[in-house]
Amino acid sequence: MDSHKYKVVIIGSGPAGLSAAARAAHYSQEGSSHLLLEAFSSPAKTIFQYQKGKHVMDEPGFLDLRSPMEFVAGKRETVLQAWEDGLKNCEVNVQYETEVVSISGENPNFIIKLKNGNEITSENVILSIGLQGNPRKLGMPGDDESDFVRYTLEDPAEFEDKTIVVIGAGDAAIENALGLAQQNTVHIINRKNEFARAKEGNLNAVLAAINSKSNEFYCGYNTNVKSVQLPDGNGQNGAIVLDTPDGDKEIACDCIIARLGAIAPRRFVESCGVQFPNDKPDSIPDLDNQYQSNVKGLYIIGALGGYPLIKQAMNQGYDVIEFIHGKEIKPADHPLLEQQFKLLPYAMDAQKVLELYQQRVPMFRRMNALAFRELIIESNIVIALDEELYTETQKEEKIARNAGVSKLTKLIKAGDYIFKKGDYSNSFYTIVEGEVYLDSGTGKKFTVGAGQFFGEMSLLSGRPRKAHAIASSDCILIETSRRIMIKLMNSNDEVAEGINRIFITRALQGAFSPKLPNKELVQLAGTVEMLEFKANEEIFKEGEKGAELYLIRSGTVSLSKGNVVTVQLQSGDLVGQMALMGNPVRLHTAKAAVRVEALKINRQQFITLVKSNPDEIKVLQKNLAELMKNSNSMGSVVEAAETVSFLLDKGLGEATNALVIDETLCVACDNCETACAETHNGISRLDRESGSSFAGLHIPISCRHCEQPHCMKDCPADAIHRAESGEVFIDTSCIGCGNCETNCPYDVIKMSYDMPKKPSLFAWMFMGVGSGPGEPKKVTIDKKAKDKGKKAVKCDACMDLKGGPACVRACPTGAAIRISPNDFVELVDGR
Amino acid sequence: MHQNLLKYKHYRYLKLFLVLAVASIALYFSQGEDQPANGGTLQGYILGITSAFFILLLTFLGIRKRSYSSNMGTVEGWTSAHVFLGTSLLLITTLHAAFQVGWNVHTLAYILMLAVIFSGFFGLFAYMHYPRILSSNNNGTSQDQWFDDLQEIDEKIKNLAISCRTGVRLMVLSAIENTQLDSTLFKQLRGKDGSKIRLQSGSKQLVTNKNQEIIIDILSTAIPNSQKQAEASALNEILTLFSRRQRLLKIIRRTLQVKAYLKAWLIFHIPITIALLAALIVHILVVFIYW
Ligand SMILES: Cc1cc2nc3c(=O)[nH]c(=O)nc-3n(C[C@H](O)[C@H](O)[C@H](O)COP(=O)(O)OP(=O)(O)OC[C@H]3O[C@@H](n4cnc5c(N)ncnc54)[C@H](O)[C@@H]3O)c2cc1C
Ligand code: HEM
Ligand code: HEM
Ligand code: SF4
Ligand code: SF4
């Protein structure tokens, strides 16, 4: 036994541990000893195991590095070399091939047991063993690590002319897949419909590979693994069976590489006495903001503490040593946090405010304090102030802005709208102080108070706001963008569940106005099932017996009789209520027109809901009668119903604002296209003649302003937004990556250079200069535009023009109109 | 939802037209006995100034149509008003002139106006009538697509022709080469099929292959006469392709023709408008000089 008692022992020499050890070495010169233990034969096993030549990224860009160890983005080899050098220069006391098997005791008497039987004693322990411990398995027969199923990939060059299935959507999966793609056929299997967790660079690269036609690189979105068939003998092909949106699919392959992330080496950590907030496999130990666990003197940093990036891990390594030595320093991203809270009326330190806020919101209370910190840094903090204070604070704001601060607390006036009914905004709001009034405009009013949240309806359904939200004075909100919220919901089940539960409760409230005590309603909501249907999946069939109804959460459902679509329904609408309100036999076939999420409500739940407020039954019956009437009038005119089927088929079911041309009126003058080009920098965003037609209706290639725009996902620059009035537009931050062009199923996004300026209309009319109005047939792109590169262009529904869409206003014959699905009945009825 | 330009805003401008008609007739008959109806009476002046104002308004459509970010109504609304006010001119100016016509510059303006108006009537007819024809003729396929299809068929035919005997092959190729789709507006309007074919290789003479009929005839007679199995089946395929080609060309020709109709009348309408404006200025000047 090593009789020496260390001031601090650091376990695991990843970026976190290395940085901590280097800082600790600094204090060793002052007589406080340190030791770094590493199970592997060299430092930073995780990084060592990256693919050869991998470009290691140093995100997040806005964060500064604070460590005696060097780290800049670059090749894996360079990064590792710098660390080896750093270890020597800083005189770090390190032992390799020393695996720790247990830790017991607490500050200042830790006993650390090693695999070789030795014991080490220490006052403090820093656990920085990362998450690589156990890779997550596929979870089905045959998934054991073998030559056929692998959980790591050391050298992609090992494979050549093979068919390889890579499972996963994270950085590791993407990097493996790309590495293999050069000399193999690669399928990458993504459970979700986008690569939400991937970092920018990887995201761009994988999408480019998927789009490129020159390599054998395929991607299955919304696809799960169903089973694995091991190869019969050596050298033989095995296979994988996938559950895809188009049904089951088998792929014969030479190898499966599953990169499903890893499970924290939780047992080990728990055996040290550290507690976890819940039993979920991805839960992260509870830490205070000095990274100390519930065991006094045991600190957890890096990936194990929930911070998945190298720079963050290194900063924490530095900071934690400072804390151990009693130095009260602020984390490296502290200034960002301070700016967020800058205009709030507190004298408190930003860190204190952060803690306070987390306690205020039950849903966030159990989040890892550090993850919450990140959420706050990425959100907006909004404060509503009374007139007088508002003007005063505005001055303060100006001073800060002049000092060059870009992101600050957001100021609004008390009593102002946070959003209005009908707005298409979709951020999510959490109230930390004060109240917000929600007013549906139809007499229903609610007040939401501190700790509660709102805005989840639009976040989840993509539909416009259903109520006005008005800020009371002095209320403080956390405004989180849809993108961040979706990320959080994907990575934190608890938050996802919390939001879902409230969504369901409020959706039930909206649909049935039950007069149940809140507790009972919440309880009932807890029993309601959420279902997901793929595009074209049947929800129920005509003639079937049904015992439940569905409340659509997102997407569009079409009802059809025979083969004829008679009605389409959208989020907030009920489907199949007839089965519970009279005839149990389904009168229609209900089908998801696009991907649909719906709540399933059974008879029991339905009865509880309507019994509590019998008046509401009349409303429901009235709505149902209306629906039946529409459905019958449509169903009786076969052409009309066929037309609606056509429109749904062309994606108008998910449209909010689509251009529809009546061919029987259109004189092919192309004035609409000309107008578009003239009002949009010389580039028309619509192609009138292309597109599809049916029964005299023509859907040109032009943006539909989808409810849940496909183009938005995977935009690395976050350049695509939805205006409050609903228009989906691309701002100037577009980096021209082309992802949106690929992701839009309707082919409406073009990549284009800036067009040269044109001579005026009069110069053209009277002097014949230039090519006249409209998109020029031949142009020479100037150098400046070339240097700037191609950027994505698409319709913005003329959101900046007072009169509205120029295409429609320029049409001399009334052939061009813009509609939303609500207008279908009128559109086809009037024909 | 879609509303044609006549019905615009529930016949707003038809209603205006009726009001104008009644008012101008009443105005005309209000001219007293002592001063016969004429452009020079008070009523005559009112009618004349109204007419001139309307003509300017109608001409302004050409500018409004090109003011793409203008908030001044919609182009459809402007066109609807244009059509009805234009028609009302027929009545208003006639009443202004009090049916006096002769060989003078006044009547020249009047006649030019009539020409513009009647070409406008044709335009209106075209706008109301041809889109439907275009729509059913195109049947959901765009003109570019038709041309792509045509090109694809031609490629296929050329490839198949390789396995035919020289005489037939050259004829097939010349039929493709000499297929004519008109490019000038005037020819498109006529819609005449000027396609030709060279029957004798080496000869300079081309004979008509209207509607691809000749080549189709030749092919159908060549099939039973072909000696080789391979050639027969190639010819058979070529024949099928030519039949599709025939149909395609018909559609394209019709599309071009209809589109030409939709455009051509404006080629009269606009220049005559300019002439009308000139004559009108002269009329007004003359009237003031000889007053
Ligand atoms: C394929 C891939 C690509 C990535 N790319 C990037 C990137 O480009 N940029 C970026 O910022 N981040 C990237 N990451 C994430 C980054 O690697 C991690 O965030 C980082 O390594 C976490 O550092 P850590 O110090 O917490 O843990 P690790 O780096 O995992 O280090 C843990 C160390 O502890 C050792 N250890 C474990 N258990 C014991 C034990 N019982 N006793 C002794 N030693 C033990 C391990 O051997 C290892 O050396 C990537 C991750 C992967 C998997
Ligand atoms: C500012 C508007 C106008 C004024 C002031 C005006 C004035 C007059 C006057 C004073 C006369 C009577 C001349 C006479 O008796 O010899 C006249 C006649 C006439 N005007 Fe106009 N006029 C106007 C617009 C128009 C327009 C728009 C047209 C048609 C295009 C038109 C067509 C005629 C004709 C055809 C006559 C009859 C000429 C004749 O007597 O032989 N005028 N106008
Ligand atoms: C004196 C009377 C008229 C004048 C001076 C006039 C003038 C014009 C002008 C300048 C244009 C613009 C063309 C362009 O720029 O493309 C136009 C278009 C048109 N006119 Fe007239 N016009 C007259 C009467 C009429 C009448 C009586 C009708 C029909 C009943 C008519 C129907 C049209 C139509 C359908 C258009 C095309 C609109 C479009 O495509 O935008 N016009 N006219
Ligand atoms: S609405 Fe505006 S941007 Fe969209 S197609 Fe029409 S003119 Fe272009
Ligand atoms: S660009 Fe495409 S995906 Fe985006 S909103 Fe328009 S139609 Fe939908």
Can you characterise this structure?
- The complex is a heterodimer of chains A (831) and B (291).
- Chain A has 5 domains: 5-133 and 264-324, FAD/NAD(P)-binding domain (3-Layer(bba) Sandwich); 135-261, FAD/NAD(P)-binding domain, CATH 3.50.50.60; 334-491, Sandwich (Jelly Rolls), CATH 2.60.120; 529-636, Sandwich (Jelly Rolls), CATH 2.60.120; 648-829, no CATH class.
- In chain A, 31% of the residues lie in helices and 24% in strands.
- Chain A has 26 helices and 44 strands.
- In chain A, β7 and β8 form a beta hairpin.
- The radius of gyration of chain A is 30 Å and the shape is globular.
- The mean pLDDT of chain A is 87.
- Chain B is mostly helical and 291 residues long.
- Chain B folds into 2 domains: 8-139 and 267-290, no CATH class; 143-259, no CATH class.
- In chain B, 73% of the residues lie in helices and 1% in strands.
- Chain B has helices spanning 8-29, 42-64, 75-97, 105-138, 143-161, 166-177, 185-190, 213-225, 229-289, and strands spanning 196-197, 207-208.
- The longest helix of chain B has 61 residues, at 229-289.
- Chain B starts with 7 loop residues before the first helix and ends with a helix.
- The chains are: A alpha+beta (831), B mainly alpha (291).
- Chain A binds chain B through residues 662-669, 671, 674-675, 678-679, 689-694, 696, 698, 761, 773, 801-803, 806, 808-815, 817, 819, 823, 826-827, 830-831, and chain B through 1-5, 8, 65-71, 74-76, 78-79, 126-127, 130-132, 134-135, 138-140, 142-144, 259, 262-263.
- One protoporphyrin IX containing FE is lined by residues 55, 58-59, 61-62, 65, 79, 82-83, 86-87, 89, 113, 116-117, 120-121, 123-124, 127, 266, 269-270, 273, 276 of chain B.
